[in-house]
Amino acid sequence: MMTQHTKEEAILQVSNVALTYDRPILRDINFCIRNIVRPGFSQGQVVTLIGRSGIGKTQLFKILSGLQQPTSGQVTIHDNQPVKAGDMGVIFQNYYLFEWRTVHQSLLLAAKKNKALAGKEKQTIDEYAEQFHLTEHLGLYPNQLSGGQRQRVSIMQQLLKGSNFILLDEPFSGLDVCMLDKAVELLLQVSLSDDLKTLIIVSHDIETSVAISDTVFILGTEPGMAGATIKKEIDLIDRDLAWQKGIKQEKRFLETIEEIKGYL
Ligand SMILES: Nc1ncnc2c1ncn2[C@@H]1O[C@H](COP(=O)(O)OP(=O)(O)OP(=O)(O)O)[C@@H](O)[C@H]1O
């Protein structure tokens, strides 16, 4: 039985986006992310963007986050406003951190950008740190952290800034099995913190990323057409594959993974 939910207003709309350098990279990109309302949960959206290497995922990621202007078309968020740099929290693959600042200094800087936290920045940092198992690391510099800890600091930074959109580039790469489980838990926790939170994940680890998503967009090329477009959108809620622990082991999940691989 399909999990009870409704899809409401558009929270991100990509319209006719194209990107051309010396040749077309992206063309006719159209998709929409809607606010999912799930009774009893503050369920946010988790979207995975999949495509083979070199297809244009990073370029689309940059366009979505306002860091790169498309050649044509537009990306709008909140009441049809065009997205601009800074609207979205971006977590790059290498978890870029200010190496010369302690974790706490970086987090405080992020929290100060969020007007909603005025006066309670330090308290909020302590609460998140506890939740993310970073309490003992607040005084350290980034080079004294493990990969998993750096990742958690990056995510915390974006959450403190108050971004409703968090884009993650390869969030699972370079993590050992144990850390991978923790990263998954953490993203699920973030996605359940507010029904307006949207995570957009670009990953080569299809199984892990699809297992925590509600929607998959597959970027690919079509015969005779230059440039990549969204070849397929898979609604995992409709397939009853979303929001379930242990889904990775189920046959029908693995069938969807095979189907996705068929599009690459
Ligand atoms: N500044 C640029 N000028 C010209 N071509 C570019 C530029 N930046 C990227 N490209 C090209 O755009 C294409 C898409 O690159 P992109 O990095 O988005 O791929 P990707 O899907 O993220 O790949 P991967 O999974 O390997 O990271 C590539 O063919 C790349 O050569």
Automatic annotation (TrEMBL):
Report the superkingdom from the record. Answer: Bacteria
PROSITE patterns named among the record's database cross-references? ABC_TRANSPORTER_2 (PS50893)
Which InterPro entries does the record associate with it?
Answer: AAA+_ATPase, ABC_transporter-like_ATP-bd, ABC_transporter_ATP-bind, P-loop_NTPase
Q: Which GO terms describe its molecular function?
A: ATP binding; ATP hydrolysis activity
Name any one Pfam family assigned in the record.
ABC_tran
Q: Name the UniProt key words of this record, in alphabetical order.
A: ATP-binding, Nucleotide-binding, Transport
Q: Report the residue ranges that make up the ABC transporter domain in this protein.
A: 12-246
Q: Which Gene3D superfamilies match?
A: P-loop containing nucleotide triphosphate hydrolases
Q: What is this protein called?
A: ABC transporter domain-containing protein
What is the scientific name of the source organism?
Niastella populi
